[in-house]
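Narrative progress, year one. The postdoctoral researcher (J.K.) led the effort to move from monomer predictions toward full complexes, under supervision of the PI. The following entry was the first complex the group processed end to end, covering 777 residues in total.
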Amino acid sequence: MAASITRKRRGRFRRYGPPLLLISPSVILIGIFVYGLIGSAFQTSMTSAHSAAEFTGKQPTEFVFLGNYTAWLATKEAHHALLNQLIFTAVFLGGTLSLGFLWAWLLDKRAKAEGIFRSVYLFPMAVSAVAAGVVWKWLLNPNRDAKAYGLNRLFQTLGLDFMQNSWWTKNLTWGIAAIAMPAIWQMAGYVMALFLAGFRGIPNELREAARVDGANEWKLYRHVIFPQLSPVALSAIIIIGHMSLKTFDLIMSISKHTNYQTKIPAIEMYRYMAEGDYANAAMVGVVLLLIVLVLIIPYLIHTTRAEKNR
Amino acid sequence: MRRISFLTAGMAAIALTLSGCGGSGDEKTTDSSAATEASETTEAPETTPADTDTETTEPEETEPAGTGALVEGASGELDIFTWWTAGSEALGLEQLILVLEAKYPDIEFVNGGNAAGQGGSGKEVLATRMNAGDPPDTFQAHAGKEMQDYIDADQLTDVGYLYDQFGLRDAFPEDLVAMLTQDGKIYSIPSNVHRANVLWASVPALEAAGLSTTDAYYASIDDFIAALEQVKTNAPDITPLSIGTTWCQVHLLETVLIAELGADGYNGLFDGTTDWAGADVTAALEKFATLMSYTNEDRDSVEWEPPIQMIEEGTAAFNIMGDWAPASFDAYGSVAGADYLYAPSPGTQGIFDFLADAYGVTNGAPHPKAAEAWIDVISSKEGQIGFNKVKGSIPARVDIDLEAEGFSAYQLSAAEDFASNAIVGSIQHGCAVTIKQGNAINEAVSKFNTGATDLAGFQAELVTAMS
């Protein structure tokens, strides 16, 4: 009996020990540098450390609980930043998903020179956001008519003068949507790759079976292809959605953190940090984290359920 | 495209600076005069009589104009944080390093700002180091209130004793020393002085508009608005007033405030004697709004250089910007008087809107002696001459014969004004307001100029920003 118990224990160690040892360094590192720091940011966000002196303990700080959150969320600036974020995310998501799907669908039709097109669509991803921002800043210049250059000049050359636009510079509500254009340009190719993989993963037999059953092209897509693509679409939404919350470099290089038109929470966080207001910087950071969680948690639940059912 | 050429220039300048540092090790042993100058204060084992026979190639090193090393026993590393890594600033820094090598051959110059990148990100890295208790010996900042956060956090030491030791209270203008002093303490030493209230005008554009092409000074903002209107009517293709993004707009606002309130009224905005909510401020803001209606459409998407380029090309008539602009005019090949004019910004004759780069000694500096030596270098005559001649600014010292030193005509006129005018501190450039107040003012201006607030709302936000 005793021998079998030890053997069982040894067996259990054999089974769980090496993997546990193997992952423990990353568990410890992630514990400290991800979760530890999240905790630290959360703690800072609930203090009144609004200057370097308070942050370093030269002046007293107090615990204000959620005071920083309620104070910030009550301001017009916060509403503006959050609305900008929402519009940016919506346009970014809509643009990348529709363009990405369209390109993937066209390529899946066995277009000629598929390889070339695939690369062309993917190229913008290789450009850093800052470099893309510098180019797009020039393209999105709001000068018109004789002084125009960039896209406005292109519209003039094409005789589409009415399309000339002030882009992000004038319209307080929708200006941010112009900044989503370069973001779409960068990421649509990636979404295309996702969808293309999805298309290629659908066995030809299914299409043939549907056709045999008398499905027309629309019905084929509606009932056979789209359901098979929905996990891909969900991944794309999650990936693009959280990327849009992290968009900071693009806005900083096209606009500037002082421009009110293009303010989003990430920019606000930077501003607070730069002026030594660590409590509010941490607060905005935590708000961003919570928004990401709202996106990610349902997705995690969904995937774990799907894996269990498998 | 301009941006890219700036970057390239920056890279080249960084490379130059680095090579300058790298070469210093060899020069130490061969440079005879510098070694003798410092020999009384340092061990300097390499100073042997044989060294005096060694040839030196740099004339300004063999015969420094100044009094030599003022700090005794300074040697080792100088851990400094500066973001003068590009263009004329980097070239100026090189001059300072030459002076440092001549005066203090035993000090090794190590710039933490180089690694951190320039400008914005550099400041964040600096703040992180300061707050983590790992300060550099000395760092670059705008002189004045911008340093307030560090002072409140007890991260800077009072350097009043260095002013006495180096005789700076007599060398700098009285107004300036008074402005930098708080409660009897001084925390920074300016290396150079810039003037913010300068009007730049394009001669061809003035010609097209039928305005005076010899004198660009306007006695009041109203006169200036009349001139802008004349440009608009007579030369509709020319932008009357070119301007850049938010900070340039705040820069314009401060010159309007100075013109409308006068030097005393403007200074009163920061000590509480002038009311930000007052009627005279309202009138100034109204004029600011009028001025903004004459500006270029792409203002929010450009820095200060493209608007200045419009003056060079004659596509804009006027621009209000600090006197770092001449570097751009020179690069373009514009000649003062023939291609462009300069004058105090409208209504500010006799007032010098001041800003300066400055250094302080940090509290807990690992090498305080080296930091003091650096302060000596930047405040010394040879340091201020070498740096400012290249950078285009003027020395903070008023006891230098600039004409004999070969400074430009603009620099001579600015220096004359600096020595005689009333000096007021710049808002945008960190002299009169703290970083937090400056950010809040920037936000208020951006909101007003994009239509998010009306004039009353704008003024209310300025009041909140300064409270």
